[in-house]
Amino acid sequence: MSKPSIVIAYHSGYGHTEVQAKAVAEGVSEAGGTAELLSVANVEAIDWELLAKADAIIFGSPTYMGSVSGPFKTFMDASSKAWSTQDWKDKLAAGFTNSASQSGDKLNSLIQMSIFAAQHGMNWVSLGLLPGNNSSEGSPEDLNRIGSYLGAMAQSNADASAEIAPPEADRKTASALGKRVTEAAIRWKN
Ligand SMILES: Cc1cc2nc3c(=O)[nH]c(=O)nc-3n(C[C@H](O)[C@H](O)[C@H](O)COP(=O)(O)O)c2cc1C
Which ranges carry the Flavodoxin-like domain (predicted)? Predict the structure, then answer.
């Protein structure tokens, strides 16, 4: 069986969400998938063919003003052409987001992505990790330290560069999402 093709369609204004996207890609490769990083920053340059051929699409956006970023929303709206022909129907989907605050209303971005995937007839894959850092035994180094279920969340201090933010725990959480989607895609293809 050929390797599942997983496209990571993301926007990142200042590089932090791109770090998360690259960590997702690492998880995909580790689990035996082919990861393609696709920036959607320029809607005119999006490779729609690549998306149409993927087994799974993992969506990623920073949370800006409590929702997905403007460029990511432009990509969502431009995908209405693929929606009209149901190009992405029955593919797997998942999502990740990053913002400065611990919450920062990141959940809203993941909800937007999951509804977007449903409109395309896709099957949403959750994060599949228990929450970390939620007991006296926990620590900020825990996997899923922010305690998300719908997708992978990351938090980047507003004054920290993408060299150091988001921190390692959030990068590992993003990799775990890439791994989970790839494993699901292998089962889905069988
Ligand atoms: C226009 C704008 C709006 C933002 N809104 C939020 C927000 O609603 N919640 C939050 O926690 N952080 C917010 N932030 C902070 C970003 O989410 C954070 O800096 C993130 O790491 C940026 O990711 P990027 O480097 O991939 O663009 C906002 C930043 C910008 C530029």
Answer: 6-154
